Amino acid sequence: MKEILINTINEALKKLEIYDVSVEIDVPKQKDFGDYSTNIAMKLTKVLGKNPMDIASLIVKNINNENITKMEIKAPGFINFFVKKDYLVENIKTVLTEKDRYGSSNIGNGKKVNIEFVSANPTGILHLGNARGGAYGDSLARIMRFSGFDVTEEYYINDAGNQINNLGESLKSRYYEICGKNYPIPDEGYHGKEIIEMAKNLYEENKDSLLDKDIEFYKNYATEKLIGKIIADLKEYRINYDVYTSEKEIRNKYNLQNIIDILTKNGYTYERDGALWFKCSSIFDEVDHVLVKEDKTLTYLVPDIAYHLDKYKRGYDKMIDIFGTDHHGYVARLKSSVKALGNDPEKLEVKLLQLVRLIQDGEVVKMSKRTGKSVTLKELIDEVGVNAARYYFVKSSLDTQMDFDLNLAKSKSNENPVYYVCYAYARISSILKEKDFNEIPQEFDALNDEDSYNVLEKVYAFKEVVKNAALKELPHLITNYVYDLANAFHNYYSRIRIITDDELVTRERILLIKSVHQTIKNALDLIGVIPPEKM
RNA sequence: GUCCAUGUAGCUCAGUUGGAUAGAGCGUUACCCUCCGAAGGUAAAGGCCGCAAGUUCGACUCUUGUCAUGGACACCA
User: Fold this and answer.
1) What is the ipTM of this complex?
2) pLDDT (tens digit per residue) in A499-519
3) CATH topology of domain A87-107+416-526
4) pTM listed for this prediction
5) Could you say which of A22, A104, A482, A508 would form a disulfide bridge with A523 (CB–CB 3.0 to 4.6 Å)?
């Protein structure tokens, strides 16, 4: 419908010999301003040197389209359109035919997109912050896939390097402790309960027969166990990755010295104080950073450069990394490295999500994997459920700093809007159980009232909302939308009786709410929420 | 100190190419189930959109300054 209007306005402009303006069509907030409106007249004031009201009436005079029932010009120069509502009712057929595909499109045009998210180090289990990143990343992937992008969801496992040493040492220390021996936990060690748990298991299965195992054993055992846990938790959170990339493998696949050599050859390194530096300040960064430390070991930056090189080699049109804001300083370095290796940094987009602050008993709890103080993803799922958790974390944009009040989440979980939406879904399910129709009629006769239009407008809007969310990469547009849709339905339900004595009316109303039912389901699926048939 | 985000109703947040009277939920107040699910609906109260300039027909939205909050500024990852 928007396109029809844009085209007719463009035709009118052509008649007036006006070119090179982009016509915008909006849906006004208020009903009395019509179904659609445009600000084109106001945009043209400068070019034409005329009063916007005059321009508007000129344009209106040149518009003639069968779909438009009424046009109004309102100060300071809006043109408001009232259109025939047939397309809304017609759309019910589309929804019921396309079913689970309703709202999908091909605007992505098969573009290859890689979304890397969560990628938490396997030095502990997932916590609240990962829950947000996971909800965002996976929802974005679902939305983009639905919109015709070729999406790969990826998890980068940092299973090598310093922190894994510390992890191994921490496990060894705990194990020794249980065996009644002393082995100091490193300063940078990990104190999570899951590590104590692991040590206990080791002891129960092997008693003290592992005391003479070297540190590699503990490292491997701990990483393997933790990765398994992480993947299982994510699966329960309804996230299934397409690709897991291991840092260890990257280190084996690429000779890291080679990468440094290329950087040197391209003139991006220099030596200072016995270390080798990356001249990233000459690209995007403000300061330079170390690649090879004085003790000849590599910083974490080097394998990460190799990892991103690997992604580029796989030929994505776009790569999205989702980091917490605590890694903010890292972005410029990473992008610099991409450029330094001769790749296009524009293809790499880094999204920063504000960290979640945990509030407990009215106080901010500092979360840390090292100290083991945090709420885990698993606990979250057990307490409030996947639906509530995912909805909650997707509904705000990435930039909002969120406070997560655990007490509140537990005690008043009904405050979560997800229940409002699910309730609408369950209500419809329950009506359909009583009466259902599967045949779609050629014509609808009984749905020509404002109440029906109000709901159907929302159902119709879904397609555009999805496109918007995919192109702007904003999953929270979906939560906003589905809430509106549920609201429209609850309103409809309270005003209109669906099952009536009139068979024809009943049938059409059933089909209407079925289209709502389907649309809610599709929308929720995009954010990983599964609505229940019964609540 | 420098850089990046954020300041919208009592609280949590929408408001994304600058549009008409700034919106929800929760909380507060008052109504609505003889009838498909009241986890619902209706209504009221609640706002100098942090503050100050600027840009323009028009600014919550853009620019600059300023204050406040969070985060980042390692030869840790």
Assistant:
1) 0.94
2) 999 999 999 999 999 999 999
3) Isoleucyl-tRNA Synthetase; Domain 1 (1.10.730)
4) 0.94
5) A482
